[in-house]
Amino acid sequence: MKDTGFQLIDQLYETQALSREEWVELLTHQSKELSDYLFERAVSVRKKVYGDAVYLRGLIEFTNYCKNDCYYCGIRCSNKNADRYRLTDEEILTCCENGERLGFRTFVLQGGEDPFYTDEHICELVSEIKSRHPACAVTLSIGEKSRESYQAFFDAGADRYLLRHETASEKHYQKLHPSSLSCENRKRCLFELKEIGYQAGAGFMVGSPYQTKEELAEDLLFLKELSPHMVGIGPFIAHHDTPFREEKNGTLEETLFLLGVIRLMLPEVLLPATTALGTIHPRGRELGILAGANVVMPNLSPVGVRDKYLLYDNKICTGDESAECVRCLERRVGSVGYRVVSDRGDHCQFVKKEGCINGVK
Ligand code: SAH
């Protein structure tokens, strides 16, 4: 008879769900053999849903100013050593122009929570990008806002929104953030984003300080409840100018394991092999794809600012031109038997709902 870990993976594969106790049990059973078993199943599921396609997202890190003070993040407002920058609208539009030429059909505008960019400004930017690049999707990742703001961005043309919940346990959330921020509000944002009609992405850091198996179980239960279209996870990596400078990094093994179980729990989810994963291991992103991931997010930001958007130490890809970044990722994805496609890469439910053909609505 198979032992517990294998049985739980079979159960997850068949029912796409586990109870809190079962999640904790599975997470404590991690081993090389169990991971191999999990990845084989995860890969078969992602192949059934998305084939061998890997979607590209062009990441434009447009500001590293932030009003928040998250204890783990290198661009937190109290890091006086951060060299702050903002891209102009023209610079952002140039990134998109280069991006479309390089084959990108999704642009992700990510930044700190920077009040310089008013809602009106973001709306203008989004609608300008959409009018210049009608075949492309725009994703925003600019933090917690009111429902009205999210609605305004959506009405201006934004298609998707990434907002990692960071941890689904309020108690753990309070250990990672100042008391002005709450897990409850973060979750409120995510449910509203979904209601408005965005393809919404949640996610968390693996191995963040004080994280327990129970908290990871909570994250997985929350993800199941929310059922987001995208899930971004990556290892926590210490940044030398934060209160967590001495904390241990998350591991490759645990991140891959979680990618695998998320693929089984949410078969249709868009799941990136993140830059943080590529930072803790030279082939981290390739291994992420082999664990069930199907998205990569090369950097489209101008080279001159890349080493300033330092959320954590030793971040990769800070010196390459965008074109090199894409080619490098195409090679990496190809090396494990998958293929980078030039497509919007919508969640499969959206492809059906909105009748996207070849990525164009
Ligand atoms: N201001 C936006 C974007 C945050 S940066 C927002 O609030 O959503 C994107 C993600 O980077 C964060 O959600 C967090 O999960 C991750 N991140 C930040 N610091 C990190 C660190 N030290 N190690 C690993 N990931 C980190």
Written description of the protein model:
It is a single chain. The protein is built from 15 helices and 9 strands. A 6-stranded parallel sheet has the order 2-3-4-5-6-7. Helix 1 (4-15) packs across helix 2 (20-28), helix 2 (20-28) packs across helix 9 (213-226) and helix 4 packs parallel to helix 5. The radius of gyration is 19 Å and the shape is globular. The protein has 361 residues and is α/β, with parallel strands linked by helices. The longest helix is centred in the N-terminal third of the chain and has 19 residues, at 32-50. The chain has one domain (4-350): Aldolase class I (TIM Barrel). Bound molecules: S-adenosyl-L-homocysteine. S-adenosyl-L-homocysteine binds next to loops. The site of S-adenosyl-L-homocysteine has 19 residues, from loops.
How would you describe the shape?
globular
CATH class: Alpha Beta
User: Numbering strands along the chain, what is their spatial order in the largest sheet?
Assistant: 2-3-4-5-6-7
DSSP helical segment count = 15
Could you say which structural class the secondary elements and strand pairing correspond to? alpha/beta
